[in-house]
Amino acid sequence: MSVSYWEFIHPDDQHAMVESGQQLIAGTDGSRYGYEVRMLGRDGRYRWTRWNARTIPAEQLLYAIGVDISDTRPREEEQVRAGAWEWQLRADEMRWSAELLDLLGLPDRGRGRRRSPEAAP
After folding, report:
1. What is the pLDDT of residues 45-90, one digit of tens each?
2. Is there a contact between 46 and 36 (Cβ–Cβ < 8 Å)?
């Protein structure tokens, strides 16, 4: 019984993989490095893999190497979350991104703007 490789690729990664493959085949970009997709393993779980690929269009060849990076890739809950703030000195006004307010557990009042009491008329 033969199975298409397509059945091993996570559904959320298939579209991006098609685009990447089309670029490789068309020869617009002869190589891809560090391309990450989830692939179905024998145990029925998806594992993250990192692929490097190179084409030789004149010979119609494609070389690819994939490495399982599941154990070294941070899980979604371990990934870094970041927010930002900006302080406009002349106006003495600060702005916080929604992400920063969320990280700090603060309500989003007035889009994170705050004017110091000294700057108020």
Report:
1. 999 999 888 887 777 777 888 999 988 876 665 666 777 878 877 8
2. no
Query: Rounded to two decimals, what is the model's pTM?
Result: 0.54
Backbone phi, then psi, for 58, in 5-degree steps? -60, -30
**Distance of CA 55 to CAs 19, 77, 95, Å?**
15, 36, 48
Nearest alpha carbon to residue 85 among 107, 114, 120: 114
Nearest to 4 by CA among 39, 33, 36: 39
CATH of 5-75, picked from 3.40.190.10, 1.10.3130.10, 3.30.450.20, 3.40.50.920, is: 3.30.450.20
